[in-house]
Amino acid sequence: MSQTFCEELYNIKQQDSPDLPGFCSVKQPWIRPTNLQESNIMTPIFQIPNASVPKGLEVQYIYVGIGYGLEQNLISPNTIAGVLNVAYDVNDPADLQNAYDPTDPEIIKIFDEELGIWYFPSLLSKVALVDGNENEMMTLVSAIYMADQLLNFPSLTEQTQETTKNPGDPMTNFYQQGNLFIHCHDGGSRSVTITALYIYYKFFVGQYTFQEVYQEVICARYLEATNHVPTQGICENAYEVLSRYKELFPKPVCN
């Protein structure tokens, strides 16, 4: 009897080998970004297709990594506008405090002279997942929708225009557009799984299988992630989402 893919991942994890698994040699569903900074903390995984990049941006990327060391001097050079934390056991606001003045407890803001507003360079969001199969399926669905929302945040100009339209309920905080960083504790399990689910449903339904997309994200983070591959439990959760909630996701652009 052939093993399920989640069981295969479990066996790879038990081997604890730094060598790339065999499925990493198969044809890639997409070309990974190679012109961007890469580290054990943050790996560029995917470039958003031009047709899906929101107005105000020319290019946009998804990064995946770990939940520690997220200082602004790492986030800002990579234009990380959205930070999605999918680990219940990691809290990140303290890491994003003003790295240039440790005595300042505030997360740094930037002034836009043209619009005359102060804005946050990053918007933090959290959907807490455990690294096993105990998650409620709608929690994974929420994480996927949150990734889509962060990637499609309106431009600063659009945000100020919305405030002008609603003077009785003005926006109190503004945020820049940019790239998305999805992280968990070690950057190889929950964050990899949510990234694969999002990329699959948003861009590759009907073109590649979920397993092919999942393998590509796993391979991109394999050498940098402490745990190398997703746990069998979170993998099982992903496949449960596949079988139960197809109708809930954004319509894939490829369709």
TrEMBL record:
InterPro entries: Prot-tyrosine_phosphatase-like (IPR029021), Tyr_Pase_dom (IPR000387)
Residue ranges occupied by any Tyrosine specific protein phosphatases domain in the UniProt entry: 151-221
Protein name: Tyrosine specific protein phosphatases domain-containing protein
